[in-house]
Amino acid sequence: MTDLTGREIVLGVTGGIAAYKSAEIVSRLRHLGAHVHVIMTKNATEFVSPLTFQTLSANQVVTDTFAAPEYWNVEHVALAKLAEVFVIAPATANILAKMAAGIADDMLSTTVLATKAPVLVAPAMNTGMWTAAATQENVKTLKARGVQFAGPDSGILACGDTGAGRMSEPEEIVEAIGRILNAKKDLQGSRVLITAGATRERLDPVRFLTNDSSGKMGFALAEAARERGAETTVVCGSVSVAAPEGVRIVKIESARDLLDAMMKEVPEQDIIIQAAAVADYRPEKRCDTKIKKKSGEAMTLTLVENPDVAREVGKIRKAGQVLVGFAAETDHVAANAQDKLKKKNLDMIVANDVTKEGAGFNTDTNIAALITSAGIQEYPLMAKRELADIILDKIVEMREKA
């Protein structure tokens, strides 16, 4: 478990039903040794008593009354300077809008505007409010400024609706806080190239061959590399999730597009991680118009082999570069992955059995084995973001030994 002994954390609590979960956040942070300072909006005090947070944090709770300041300095400035990380949980649509617009009309919005610390928000609101164009535009603005987000999750909400908008669980938020406070900078000055998502091979203007890759693993790696100080580029196919902020995105569609992009990008990189799911075959012919159904007649597609992008990258690698591949398998996982490790001139391959529950495409978790010429290290079910850091740890270790 993350050690947060002596770390200074400011927690803002806004007026939402999820405010009760914030009490557990304070409790968990205190058990990890952190000093927690709570700011509550007036509406938040309607859901949870300030006394609850005062008891759990062992610190005075700051509200919008500005009464009985604990700090000799102007209070919002003192807390803004004190914070090593500034967390808002729950974060309502209202506070997100204030932050995006730079409005400072209460203690919380004033303090977060003044802070130079990393900011983490855990949104909680009705699905309609979360998906509203105004909210999504505010989220985009905040992410562009470096604000980090935990959630929201999907599920049954307090209003009875089902959908996105539920605040992430306290355990997940505390884990995100720990990552921010203990972020390594061991890739500072390094250039990292990551491939993500699925390629598409067109049959005609409306149809294509593809796979179930969502891009989640590649984007988790990109986020982790960025946080560790790397100059990060993602060559990105079809994805179902938003790309992390602060990374350069190169969009591609087909395997041949990917090869072209990689031939341009690879020579300038220090680390190349190929997490994209690339189609092995493409239609021999692509029709310029929609293929019409002929009732009662079968259709035969002739497929031709695509270039092996990872192998081509392996051929042009420079001294000192680290190459990592991925192998999504359904049988003989280790043997197939080890074969690819050699054929594609890789330093490491991340193998997973996509038939296992919680592993593979379009999930937030993975079960993986890291395979090098020195052997195999297997890892249990875990979040893809957690696995991303393990992969980067291994890469850093290999570079130090080189």
CATH class annotation of the largest domain: Alpha Beta
Strand pairing plus helix content: what structural class? alpha/beta
Supply the number of helical segments: 13
The CATH architecture of the largest domain can be named as 3-Layer(aba) Sandwich
How is the main sheet built? 8 strands, mixed
What gyration radius follows from the Cα positions, in whole Å? 24 Å
* N→C terminal distance: 31 Å
Average predicted confidence as pLDDT: 89
CATH topology label of the largest domain: Rossmann fold
CATH superfamily of the largest domain: CoaB-like
- What topology, given as strand order, has the largest sheet? 12-11-8-13-16-17-18-19
Strand content: 15-25%
Give the tally of structural domains. Answer: 2
The parts where pLDDT drops under 50 for at least 5 residues are: none
